Amino acid sequence: MYIIDEKDEEYRFGDSGPKYLMKGPRMNYALVQFQSGQSFKAHYHNIMEENFYIIDGEIDIVVDGKVNHLTKGQFIHIEPGEIHYCVNNYNNPIKMVSTLAPYEEIDKVDVENYTY
């Protein structure tokens, strides 16, 4: 057992991206934040499934070319192999929880020049 305080961790890109509170041994758990206009590169996972739960704000999460507009309180499940891309097209920051399981140290495959 262990306890982590969110304030002791940092977002990957300063004020945005994932902030991992746990990486392995069986899953990843992160808080994710994007400011207005920010996005996260299109990618997929070979083994891990990914889930997002929207804590605050709204975001477009594109999965295999389909734009899914999500708002506070909504949840999306993304299967391994599904290409996904997150973009905050709105005026306020977005904050959401991300889980990935089963844990794999390296399982993110970037998709170059992704269009939808």
Would you mind describing this structure in some detail?
The chain is an all-beta fold and 116 residues long. It has one domain: Jelly Rolls. The protein contains no helices and ten strands. β5 and β6 form a beta hairpin. The radius of gyration is 14 Å and the shape is globular. The N and C termini lie far apart (42 Å). The mean pLDDT is 96. This is Cupin domain-containing protein. It comes from Clostridium uliginosum. InterPro entries: Cupin_2, Flavonoid_dioxygenase-like, RmlC-like_jellyroll, RmlC_Cupin_sf.
Mean pLDDT: 96
Number of strands: 10
Main β sheet profile: 5 strands, antiparallel
Strand numbers in spatial order across the main sheet: 1-2-9-4-7
Write the CATH fold name: Jelly Rolls
Structural class: mainly beta
- Cα-atom Rg, whole angstroms? 14 Å
Which CATH class applies here?
Answer: Mainly Beta
Dominant shape: globular
Q: What is the number of independent domains?
A: 1
Give the helix level as a range of percent: under 10%
| String of helices and strands | EEEEEEEEEE
Low-confidence stretches: none
